[in-house]
Amino acid sequence: MHRDLPVALSPWPCSLPGDDLDARILGLEKAVGTALFRGILREYGRANQPKLIRDAAIKGKVLQMLESATRGLDRLEAVTQRLDPNTVKGLLDKLQVPPLNEIADIKILQTVVFGLEELADSDQHHAA
Fold first, then answer.
1. How far is CA 62 from CA 18, 24, 81, 108, 126, in A?
2. pLDDT value, residue 118
3. Residue 37: closest CA among 16, 58, 68
4. Residue 9 scores a pLDDT above 70
5. Could you count the other beta carbons within 10 Å of the beta carbon of residue 7?
């Protein structure tokens, strides 16, 4: 009787590709932190929860940005281990950004990572 309905209109629960995206998106919250997770959801998904994003392409973009943030945080961790904590604090103060664990915007994360990597690279050249 409901055989010809599109999957999205079917009265039976089923696993949709969007459900998988929701799970993958939610799985990255711990990796990126709550502030950055919510910031990316709001900016790219225009929602507070993945399940509220209806368009699969937008969910895909959110997932892509969260994965990018994860890589950025890995780079941030690597570069902060190479620098003096005062140097890191100095750059954060100069850029007028929040402490590293409170960054809620991927563009700010990118700016901080690039700035710290540049400082670390210039420190290596001066030390050589």
1. 12, 10, 29, 17, 40
2. 94
3. 68
4. no
5. 10
Q: What phi, psi does 42 have (nearest 5°)?
A: -70, -45
How many CA atoms are closer than 13 Å to the CA of 105, on its beta-carbon side?
Answer: 6
Summary count for the chain: helices (H), strands (E): 6, 0
The predicted model scores a pTM of 0.80
CB count in 10 Å sphere of residue 102: 10
Number of neighbours of residue 116 by Cβ within 10 angstroms? 22
Tokens for 60, please give them.
């895909």
- pLDDT digit string, tens, across residues 76-101: 999 999 999 999 999 999 999 999 98
Of the candidates 33, 11, 54, the one whose C-alpha atom is nearest the C-alpha of residue 104 is 33
